[in-house]
Specification:
Chain lengths: ~220, ~220
């Protein structure tokens, strides 16, 4: 048995997210690599990427000090895999949300922002690590993650442009409003606390409404 | 002469903010303490609080390895002074903005959000350090910074309540909207790049407009 439970000293909040992450990443094989990714999120969140050693991460995952290197070439590769997995999932969720909604720009915008805000709350520790440590990635890896983020932004921009074209949105500044709408959803990960009064789904509802207010056409 | 220019290797973007910070903090005396605060911002931004040594900071400020301890008891005290200075200034700016604007809730909200967004862009490195390292502060220090942040939030909340009372705002969820409006402005520090196309003042204008859209009453 891995000895992680004796080593971790996680808050109940982190325990919760760790379990959610392990579940969300269940397709990542082998299980030890998955456990290392989750341990990496928690370790980076606790003291930042640069102050975390591969030994810290291995210990959290219940492995021997060098155990990380069986699955990842370096600490940077682990951060890259975390960033890639998290950003890819966000992109997939955003795509699905945009397609599942009825085909009005309003419904698509609401669904996309709701999806991002709910994920931002539910996986707030992961979200913070990905945002705060973007600058710690190697240039090539950073560019790859940035490209996925641009795909998410492109979906939002297209919805805003559609809404404008159809005369249902009033968006004088599509570029700036795209950044702002995404910013609103991304920032949920920063301020969200599990101990707060709102469930992720309630935050999703509120943010879908706020996004709509930012763009709606006023008679 | 301090030898910092040979040690720093700052990007032009960081150089710019460093000079703005030194100017903005010119009331902090002696000048060496001020230089250490600025060096701390740059060092924490470069590799995170936990991986930064007091020696790194002293070197960036052009001092001997132990030079920080003449002015600050610890690395944590330096981070606390940075967080306190930055948050106090934000609060002062927000107060002034709210008072200078004409006395309608709309004008006050615009002025407050414009002020926060402009500062978020202009001092984005400082803003990131304060946000990302909040958890690295000792409990008492964190509580002190949090209390200042609650004062900023209270000003925004009061404006929203006034607007609602006067029948000029439509804000079904004052608490959630206060968080969201502040979040929009705070998050500018995360995404802002000096190399981007917009000046801080343009971002301030756009964000004042977006904040207004979030609360305006639709006929």
């Amino acid at each position: 048995m891995p000895r992680r439970n004796t080593v971790l000293r996680l808050s109940p909040e982190e325990e919760l997210e760790m379990r959610a992450l392990e579940d969300g990443w269940r397709e990542i094989e082998p299980a030890t690599a998955r456990r290392l990714l989750v341990a990496g999120v928690m370790a980076f969140a606790a003291k930042g990427y640069h102050a975390t050693t591969t030994r810290d991460i291995a210990e959290r995952a219940g492995l021997s000090p060098g155990g990380l290197y069986v699955h990842f070439a370096s600490k940077e590769e682990l951060l890259y895999r975390i960033s890639l997995a998290g950003t890819r999932e966000s992109l997939e969720h955003v795509r699905k949300a945009a397609m599942a909604a009825d085909n009005t720009p309003q419904a698509r915008l609401r669904a996309v922002i709701e999806s991002l805000a709910v994920r931002g709350a539910r996986y707030h520790t992961t979200g913070r690590v990905i945002e705060y440590e973007l600058g710690s990635l190697d240039e090539g890896h950073r560019a790859e993650v940035a490209a996925l983020r641009r795909e998410i932004a492109a979906i939002v921009r297209e919805i805003l442009e559609d809404g404008r074209r159809q005369g249902v949105f009033d968006v004088p500044d599509v570029e700036g409003t795209t950044v702002a709408v995404l910013s609103l959803a991304v920032d949920v990960a920063r301020w969200y606390r599990t101990s707060g009064r709102r469930a992720p789904e309630e935050i999703g509802d509120l943010y879908a409404d706020l996004a709509w207010r930012l763009v709606r056409k006023v008679p």
